[in-house]
Amino acid sequence: MIARIAATLAALCFAFPALATIEIEEVTSPGGVEAWLVEDHSIPFVALEFWFLGGSALDAPEARGATYLMTGLLEEGAADMDAQAFAAAREGLAASFSFDASRDVVSIGARMLTQNRDAAADLLRAALVEPRFDPDAIERVRGQVLSLLERNARDPGTIARTTFNDMAYGDHPYATPQEGTPESVAALTRDDILAAHRAALTRDRVVVGAAGDITAAELGALIDHILGDLPAEAPPRPGPVTSGLAGGVTVVDFPSPQSVAYFGHAGIDRDDPDFFAAFVLNEVLGGSGFQSRLMQEVRVARGLTYGIGSFLSLADLSPAVLGQFSSSNELVAEAIDVVRAQWADLAQNGITEAELEAAKRYMTGEYPLRFDGNGTIASILASMQSDDMPVDYITNRNSYIEAVTLDDVRRVAARLLDPAALHFVVVGQPQGLSPGN
Amino acid sequence: MLHRPALALRLALALILTPLAASATGDVTDFMLDNGMQVVVIEDHRAPAVTHMVWYRVGAADEPPGQSGIAHFLEHLMFKATETMGSGEFTELVKANGGFTNAFTSWDYTGYFQRIAADRLGLMMQMEADRMRNLRFDPVEVATERSVILEERAERFDSSAGGLFTEQTRAALFLNHPYGIPVIGWRHEMEELSLEDAQAFYDTWYHPNNAILIVAGDVTPDEVLALAQEHYGPIPASDGLPPRLRPLEPPHIADRRVVYEDARVANPYVTVQMLAPVREPGDQAEAAALVYLAEMLGGGQTSLFARRLQIEEERALYAAAFYDPTSLDPSSFSMVNVPVPGVSLDEAEADLWRMVDTFLAEGIDPAQFERIRFRIEAGEIYEQDDTAGVAQAYGAELTSGLTLSDIEGWTETLLSVTPDDVMAAARRLFDDPSTVTGHLIRPVTGPDSQNVEIGQ
User: Fold this and answer.
1) Which of A174, A395, B130, B145 has a CB 3.0–4.6 Å from the CB of A169, allowing a cystine?
2) Class of residue B452 by CB neighbours under 10 A (exposed 0-12, middle 13-18, buried 19+)
3) Which residues form the Peptidase M16 N-terminal domain (chain B) (predicted)?
């Protein structure tokens, strides 16, 4: 059996299946909103993604959390419907809507049956264009957000991330969690919410992904119906920010048998010429699954954690290389040493030919498998547009990865990975972490 | 995160109203290999990919006494060496082929899957068949991996007040049945799990006549049959497969209370759980009615709990009801109430029962009933978009003792439920139930966080 498996592996280099046939139609609605569509009439529903770029980074300094609270209120009453009437209408149509706000995006997802699509679109339009922001709904959702913040304040993973961002970003909106702080949320007024609504949902900053049972003409009309009455133009976004965090370790005391470590430093932009080399590098460092250096060295070889990973954060205003793991308090210092050693080794020596080939095989092979459902496809289409990628990106993406050379990765590793700048926020009661670690 | 047991998944399934029946995207075909391995093929030709799953009819509720966690531990060890493959090579080869692999353990099953390009199905079967019988346990790797599962337990349970609370209330709900054991295992028993324990569990249960192969995606039944016969067909059936001996629950004649206090609790809450019937082969009507009941009481924004407790009375931050109808042995019906600050847990508990009484007194709102029924119908459409999800549901259903005809008839059973059926099921469930009531509370003062800079 060894021989057969080896033979299969050798045959791989030229044996990848053709990409799934994904044909993207570029649609411009009569009202001028651009959208990407993958038409597929095999199942009678459509998945839609409306991504409004800007997100909670648009919050005014004195109103942090306003965009998040506003987004949570969109489904709590609209037009002549109070929260209950809205929910009953949505359930009665078996439509599903999701409303989310992150640092960079307010994203609205929808699934609508073909048989009642117009009625579902009416409902979504009401939520986006005519939200009521009733005082009782504001108080109810504010209570939910405050309760979430209370939970986050006792969750070691969230404490680690929040502490890291707070130390890295100073006065920039990125320093504050998208949900805001207990103080800022408690102080938000209805006017703050109205202002956030006016700033976040505008037609000039929306990208649309659609997949499923709808034609281009139908989609154009649907988009204009849903978005047509939103303001045309948005206020400016804040500028980029560079992490001001120096290398080292910050410990946040937290009573728990385990410590959570959140770590990283500044990263690389998606439009950087070296982005794809960095993408491959991260796959080897701490990408998906067991074969990464961090999983092999921290989990498989030493049993110091259940899981560890790293990722390239492509936050619009401050890209970063980040990672996270949890280890028992008595093991976390050793695990941090191992992470630092891998960081230093890759920065100095780059990756091996075998690692490069394995990473490329995985990254190019798994890509076509992602396009496996209307909802997923609609999200990918919106995400590509939010990153300003061209419509032929799907076709060309694997060739960009194939083109990465060992020297490219070595150069990027030396430039990107900086063991001296690597900062760890450790939340727990770690043992044996001392200055100079 | 890799290799997590299916606890979260079970919760997710319990939250999904969508019935899980045959995918109308493609046909579902089943056959049996000569060695007793059941095979199910779910066709979906929209993308050139497959999900390949092997489910074993064994889980945490089948573990020998004193070895809690062994089913899940073995799941981890299945990614180590076989007689012909090196440790970790399984994962490496799946990734080298552009695929993704993982596994999960629950009380009733252990499952392994790969998602991969359709033309790699044969290789997946070859490797999965290899590790069905040829696993080789290495003492050093067993020790390291035991450390990994202890870290997993620390991360998911010991570091989580909610995780520990759930574990304690579940242990209180099942007096005699091993459903009371956590899938991950009790720490003191996990620490003692040995290579011999893993070997014995593997030797007992991992055989083709205890396995179900499910392939979903861009394949035909003929292709799957030919490949399955080639790779799984030669493995002999075990004639020593033990029956799944599950100690039965005695009648529950006493209410039980669990109070767990933890400084990490942010929002105190109360849970109420009671045993509930499940989908029985050939008899799914009671379970179907309970699915409606959970939805009407606490399944969404227009449920009774949300409408009254959250919105009208503003006494709850969140209140819900859950019921998982798919289980080999009895399941539970549960309710949760997270009160707003200022409402005590005793009051929150009383609120839940007040809502149950309100429901029993007021009966069914026909409009709400129709909305739920329509969403079940629409679920048939939406689920066609997620073939891997359909495959997952088939695995859970088949390892819960249901037949293909039960699975295919489930939606019809759900759609034939009447309001009277729901009321009758509610009365049976709440007629003098023995309950486990849990209070998750925090001490008066919480932990103080303090930043300490160490080195630069």
Assistant:
1) A174
2) exposed
3) 39-184
List phi, psi (to 5°) of A249.
-130, 130
Strands (DSSP E) contained in A277-412 are 308-313, 320-328
Residues of B carrying an active site annotation: 75
**Percent of chain B, pLDDT > 70?**
92
Question: Which residue of chain A is at minimal alpha-carbon distance from B217?
Answer: A372
Residue A21: predicted pLDDT: 64
Tens-digit pLDDT profile for residues B100-122: 999 999 999 999 999 999 999 99
Can you give the pLDDT at residue B24? 40
Q: Which of B274, B419, B417 is nearest to B352 (CA)?
A: B274
Query: What ranges in A201-313 are assigned the alpha helix state H?
Result: 216-227, 275-286, 293-294
* Contact in structure between A66 and A195 (CB atoms under 8 Å): yes
Is beta strand A423-428 parallel, antiparallel or unpaired with respect to B49-56? unpaired
Contact check, Cβ <8 Å, B1/A306: yes
Where residue A109 falls (left for φ over 0; alpha for ψ -120 to 50; beta otherwise) is beta
Instruction: Name the phi and psi angles at A223, rounded to 5.
Output: -60, -45
| A388 CB-contact burial (10 Å; exposed 0-12 / middle 13-18 / buried 19+) | exposed
pLDDT band at A244 (very low <50, low <70, confident <90, very high): confident
> What is the C-alpha separation between A380 and B329, in angstroms, rounded?
41
Tokens matching residue A350: 């780059």
Q: Which pLDDT does position B245 carry in this prediction?
A: 84
CA-to-CA distance for A61 and A67, rounded, in angstroms?
12
Token output for A136: 């009782």
Q: What is the pLDDT of residues B402-426, one digit of tens each?
A: 999 999 999 999 999 999 999 999 9
Structure tokens at B353: 């029962």
The set of residues, in sequence order, having a beta carbon less than 8 Å from that of B86 and lying 6+ positions away, is none
For residue B161, which residues of chain A lie inside 8 Å, CB to CB? Answer: 154
Contact criterion met (CB below 8 Å) for B213 and B124? no
Q: How many CB pairs under 8 A join A and B?
A: 247
**pTM of the predicted structure, to 2 decimals:** 0.91
Does A41 reach chain B within 8 Å, measured CB to CB? Answer: no
Q: How far apart are CA A388 and CA A106, in angstroms?
A: 17
| Residue position matching structure tokens 């009782």 | A136
Chain A residues whose CB is inside 8 A of the B152 CB are: 306
Report residue B101 as tokens. Answer: 């692999």
- The edge-to-edge listing of strands for the beta sheet with A320-328 is A308-313, A320-328, A258-266, A423-428, A248-253, B450-454
Residue range A7-31: mean pLDDT, rounded: 63
Q: Which two tokens stand for residue B113?
A: 């899957």
Residue positions counted in chain A: 437
| Mean pLDDT score, B199-225 | 97
Q: Check the CA dihedral B287-B293-B299-B301 and report its sign.
A: positive
Contacts with A191 (C-beta within 8 Å, 6 or more apart), sequence order: none
Residue listed under structure tokens 């040493």? A337
- For residue A371, the SS3 value is coil
Structure tokens at B356: 């149950």
CA distance B215 to B124: 11
Q: Which of A360, A372, A437 has the most B C-beta neighbours within 10 Å, making it the best mutation to test the interface with B?
A: A372
ipTM reported for the complex, 2 dp: 0.90
Q: Which two tokens stand for residue A397?
A: 């993406």
Q: Which residues, 6+ apart, have CB-to-CB distance to B283 below 8 Å? A: none
Three-class SS state of A335 = helix
Cβ partners under 8 Å of residue A24, min gap 6: A36, A37, A38, A381, A391, A394
Measure CA B48 to chain center: 28
Instruction: Give CA–CA dist B422/B376, Å, rounded.
Output: 15
b/e per residue, B350-367, with b = 16+ CB within 10 A? ebbeebbeebeeeebeee
Positive/negative CA dihedral, B207, B80, A295, A329: positive
